[in-house]
Amino acid sequence: MTSRGTPSRFLQSVLQNGVGRYVCQLKRISIVFSRKAQSSLGVREFIEEGVVDYAKKNPATVVYVSPQSCRIPKIVAEYLNGNVREEIITSKTAPQISDLLTKLTDQSGLDVIRIRKPFHTDNPSIQGQWHPFTNRPPSIGPIRPQKQQEAE
Amino acid sequence: MVFLTLSCWIRSRGPDRYWKVQEVLKHARHFRGRKNRCYSLAVRAVRRAFVYATKARRLKKRNMRTLWISRIAAATREHGMKYPALMHNLTKTSVQLNRRVICDLAVTEPRSFLSLAKLARARQQEGFRAALGDGKEPAGVFSRVVVLQ
Questions:
Q1: Does residue B115 sit at the A interface (CB-CB below 8 Å)?
Q2: Domain coverage including residue B106
């Protein structure tokens, strides 16, 4: 896990989200679970109680519930920038699944990789970035228009 | 007659070799030469790379600090002071800025850095006057230590 071998990115927000209005970046949530298996017990409990409240609290996110015969229940979260995240929820309890859903809701869709710096500015310098002539006095004086010659 | 022993002699020697090899090679893809393709060379190179990465986490802190110090020293010399004088007098005036912040100020905010240098120089002059003048004059403005409640 070298820093050159693994991808990294700078800290950013998607299109300055939150400066004006906040738009939830989670587009779609699909809950894939099975009707009978033991691993989906928590999921089924969550779907009985918590899903409708979650969907009402997040009107910007579309929630799909798809019971299939599958061995591992999953949550597939799709974000507005196109990233897809799959979380496996075998043998999780309903409160754990709702915590996971709040975590997915709060995330922007940017990749979960190393962030190079924990800060970012678009305008790092207010007084002007240093250059070799910042602290040097000027060699010639202020430039003034030349006095008109009398011969003219 | 059916020959059955022949099929018993066939053994599978481990079906996962490809994926185990790819796990190592994926960390070596950006290397130079045959180390990025051949497994035996790549294993050694990847292990060295990980060891260097682990050791470098301590070195990075040291290197960044020396970088900040050299940048601050260069900036103070532009204003006619030296780095040890600046830092010592800033701590005496209870300006608790660390080297990273002072370096960023020197790069992006040159006038604020100039004011810090002037503050340090004033405190330095007060220190000289207190040491040489032998107590008859009151200590200067910047020598008064502010006690925050």
A1: no
A2: 21-132
